[in-house]
């Protein structure tokens, strides 16, 4: 064995002669000359060498065990009796063999280092149970992963605490938080291409960032000035501002026209294709951020429930999907869930959906008991005020008959297993006469299943629909964010949140959810969009002659109502 501590090798060459080989005459004839056969080489042992259990022990035991340093030039080897051997051919042969073995070992070590395996550099690479010990790099990687998880948890707790404090402070502060988030989201997304194509943009395209932010200001003003006008219309105490509110459309158009002219005027002939691509990217970013969040402030003033509840559903889905993916990912379904985001798994997606729907059922019932969450408002107050209202019927406990269409989707055997369900039959084929089915009654024909649920908040039924959307559709916003990051070769959009990255990394699924909530609210919950303050606002816009006609029509309707 050749030790890495010393390059000196004791080579023992045994001379074969007729005096020491009397027991084997045939062998003595073949070894009459010391050069007739290659000499046998014996190598000294060294306990400091790498354990033979290492990955390279087999590949590198060409002569003896591992060779960890190049052989030095061998000269004047001696026998066990101390006689000098003067066979230069044997010495050259040994030196050549050792050099070849060392080169092979060096190649193997370089391959292992590229693969991230440092076990060949350790003097002891096995544990007590025979398992490979972690290398320094693996230990550092494991510690870095644990530290990242801790940073992620602490950041999440801090964000949640801050969010609850702002939620308590009131509606105005929540709208301010939304505005700040939109500004940061736009900044992160446009910076992606700016950093990628900085070599083209620098000193070549004038007002590049200025035009981007002009588009953002135009979109923000149009979106939220329209929201403010709606609040003025719905609040009689703010009707003195109507003269200013009527200027909203004109100012929005002037901003749009000015931004459009500046964008076209700054185009360069040699970079037209790039600038047009950049303009399309800016419009896409505005559609993702400002467009999808256009109605989120309406959700806030319709009742904090319609803002807080969808946000919590998305957070729950992200958390449960991450937990299910970490514990059960690719253990039951090995097929890749989504190629754009290979770390996602079917187990995480399905487990997150089930847990999110369960969370929606119980969380909606809990939030429905707080008037701070369910009462709408149209006041702009900088101080928290207690809200009092008659809650919408969906937030009140009631006895509810579940829609019969729900049970038509289930096999009759499974439907019969639901506690409290009643089998409703028609009598004698009459589709207008129904009664509970009686076993053995020939005149009874099954018509539908009916389930009466007592002490149920109707909002729990609506919550299931929102929970389903948060589980099946909203995650695709995250997949879009993953596609953007993969396309531009970045890991995170920013580093503003320790352990999470940028705001876009956390808000990617919230955009579609906020838009869905507004559509759901106006479609299934509050279908009436006209209120008394809005009617008074419209009345003030009428001419004197039109006001007289309006009052006459109101009096006629009132008289008809009294007669009835």
Features:
564 residues; 4-stranded antiparallel β-sheet
Describe this structure in words.
Helices cover 55% and strands 5% of the residues. Strands 1-4-2-3 form a four-stranded antiparallel beta sheet. The N terminus is likely disordered. The chain is mostly helical and 564 residues long. Helix 11 packs across helix 19. It has 21 helices and four strands. The N and C termini lie far apart (113 Å).
Structure summarized in a few sentences:
The chain has 564 residues and is mainly alpha-helical. 55% of the residues lie in helices and 5% in strands.
| Class inferred from helices and paired strands | mainly alpha
| Strand order across the largest sheet | 1-4-2-3
> What separation lies between the terminal Cα atoms?
113 Å
Record field, number of beta strands: 4
Determine the fraction of residues in helical runs and give it as a percent range.
40-55%
User: How many helices does DSSP assign?
Assistant: 21
Low-confidence stretches: 1-86, 114-131
Give the biggest beta sheet: 4 strands, antiparallel
Percent strand equals 5-15%
What is the arithmetic mean of pLDDT? 78
Shape: flat
Along the chain, the helix and strand elements come as: HHHHHHHHHHHHHEHHEEEHHHHHH
Write down the oligomeric state.
single chain
| Rg from Cα | 40 Å
